Structures are given as C-alpha cells and as structure tokens.
Amino acid sequence: MTYEVKSLNEECGIFGIWGHEQAAEVTYYGLHSLQHRGQEGAGIVSNDERKLLRHRNTGLISEVFKRPSNLAKLTGKAAIGHVRYATAGTASINNIQPFLFDFSDGQIALAHNGNLTNAKSLRAELEKKGAIFASSSDTEILMHLIRRSPKETFIEQFKDALNQVKGGFAYLMMTEDKIYAALDPNGFRPLSIGQFANGSWVISSETCAFEVIGAKWVRDVKPGEIVIIDDSGLSFDQFTTDTQMAICSMEYIYFARPDSVIHGINVHTARKNLGKRLAQEAKIDADIVVGVPNSSLSAASGYAEESGLPYEMGLIKNQYIQRTFIQPTQELREQGVRMKLSAVSSVVKGKRVVMVDDSIVRGTTSRRIVNLLREAGASEVHVAIASPELKHPCFYGIDIQTKRELISANHSVEEVCEIIGADSLSFLSIDGLIESIGLESDAPNGGLCVAYFDGNYPTELYDYEEEYLRNLHQKVDFRTN
User: Which parts of the sequence belong to the Glutamine amidotransferase type-2 domain (predicted)?
Assistant: First the structure.
C-alpha cells in the first residue's frame, strides 16, 4: 500500500536581484545553488526597462536553461526566479513559477515558497466572485487578493492581501519598477538580503546563494516584514506587528544547505551540535560512526566527536540522484533509495555501526540503508536520528500532509526499530533539538517550529483543522506496507 500527497504543498527556493547588468545570469546561478530546495521545475522573470520577460519549464534549472538563448532573451537589470519542489499530480507547466500577470495597467511577476493553510477557502470565495485561476497553486491567490483590494495604493493593497493569507509564505514579487519581498508573521521559511559591491541588492531563500554569486549577506527578512527594492535602494515596511518567530526546525535538520546561515546560525554547526547532543542522549556500544550522505554528515561528525568513536565513510552517495524525500510517490522513493546509496564493505564489514541520519519520515530510506550495511557485512547496525520522532503533519510547506505518512506516528520506537531492521533505534529529544540549534529568541521553543514533533502548532490550521482532527487517531500499520 502506498500513499501519495493529495494537495499542493511546496518546499521551494526563491531568488531576486535588482540593479545588475546581468540580472538573469546572476539569478540562474543563485537558483542553481538553491536547487536542493526544488527539482521539478524552474523559471526566471527579468525586467528590461519596464517590460517583464519570462522563461520557465519543468526539470532542473540547468535543463530549463539548457539552450543559451533561453537565458540570453531575459535582458534587463532586475530579475526574480524560482525552483519548484515536486508534488504528486501537479507537474503541469502552469504551476511552474514565477507567475507572470499581464494587466491593463502593467505587469507583475510573483514567486512563493511555503504553503497557505487557508488557500482552499480563499480560492472558493474568490471563484464565487468570478475569479479565474490559471494554475492549481495557492500562490496565485495572493494576486487575486491584491487586485480585488479596495485600498488606494499598491503597497496598501499588498498589505491587505498579505493579512488575508495564512500559513507559511515567503513571497517575491516584481513590478515594472520595484521588487517586493514579504515573510509570514512566524517566519516559517528562511529569507535573506544580500548586496553586491556595486550596490545591487539580492534576496534569496538561503545565504549559500550569496557565496556563489559574490554578494555579501546583509540581514534576514523579519517575520511580518516587507522589503522594497528599487533604483533608490532598499526600504522596509510591515504588513503586521502581530508576529512570533517560529522558523521551521527542519530547515536546520534537513532542508537547508550546510553552508547557509539562518538567523545567525550556520546550518553545518547546528547539525554538528545535534549530533553531539544525540551522542550524549544515546550512548551506544559500537565500533564506528557512519553518516548518511549528504544532510546527515555534519550530525554524524558531531556524534563521532562527542562519543569518541571513529567516523568512517561507510556509505557513498551517487551525487547525480535526486533526494528521495522529495520524490512524489512511494514507488519513486523506493527506486531512488536503491539508486542513490552504496555501502563500503571494506569499511563496515565485521563492525558494529552507528548509522546517523537526520530523520525518519516513512521508514523507506532507513530500512534500505540498514539492509545495505548488513549486506556489506556490518555485524550490528544501530540507527541514531539527529531529530525527534516525526509524529505530526506539517501544513506550512513540508511534504507531510497526514499522520498516516509518518511511521513514528503509527508505531512505537521499538516497532519502528523492528520495521527498519536495526539493532537499536534512538531519537534526539525535543529539548535537545532546541538547545542544539540555539537561536537567540525568547519565542516559544527558542523561536523554532517543532509542531511535527509535539503537535503544538503555532497558528490556527484553518482549512486543515477538520481533516487533522478527523485523522488524529487513525493508524496505519507500516509492517504491511
């Protein structure tokens, strides 16, 4: 039995630049560094003297712009771009961003990272009033709200629309004379500001893009904030002051690149600290520590350092295989795991192995890797997870929509251990997670969203509330899957 994601839910990457002679080219390289955030499709919209030009398609950014002419036609000194995360049943090019809207009074481009929790009800209400949608993405809703706002100025219309959408969102919008960036009141998704030496301003989902293009980090966009960039420079506004930091903890655990910095915390350092804390909480009698490439290598090195066990490269990843967690169906995830990893027999044979991984979602990957290590001759395989048990869905932009997709929501630690075939299984505590990341915030949970671990959501769930409560006590036996 397999389960597919039934609704649009994206973990994407956005990038924008203003005031650069090669804006589209810089955006291409920026998106390339954000490719880990989405591999289904990509697009760029450039601004050439108040005319917006676009190219988008399905596939990786290098495939979308394989023909040099596709990038060369995107002339101008400003651009925004988007890499899209794959979901089931939504591969239409109509859902590839940035969206480009042509109105009688001008053009607007829009890109979005996150997921709106009231998208279904907003869309139904807008359609009743005559709105026509060109995609199935919740991103398009914002533009309808802007155009229907009774406010007099564009910035006030934008604020009005932002206060109507709920959930997790990082928006990038480009008009003929400005770029706007906006972050939801909880700051679920990361978004940062950078600058070139020539004064050009850059906005990116992650700071790793700044290093690639040669820009310097300036600061992070704050929850509830609007950033405005035009020829006069950078300015700031607020669409709400009712904010409370709740950055997605999975950014530090899994999604972000290790060389990125999110709210002052380097992702590699955070992951290494997670591994160290895990070693303190889960003392395992073993011979070597092996990390699961690539997002778990930092945690594995931390575990090895703290435990005093040698760190070995016992697993090798085919770097040309996409991440299995962001494959749209269980069947594709299974195939992806078979292709992406191999165990090094000469390293693990006869050894008691601590296999450090960042998380267990459905158990598919963990089960396969344990089998790989055993087939390579490991005498024992102890699985240590550098995050707490994933027991609850995420509604803010991660591809976990129901509890029946989560093995830990349906089985005890002992049962999960048996299902994946490990000799032992350990998870990091929630307190260990929060303290290891160490955000300097007086917000609950240290400024992190840990709802997928404890079920305490920092916002109302709106359209998801009824379904979440209805499925709260439903169980799936993963041993039969």
Answer: 12-232
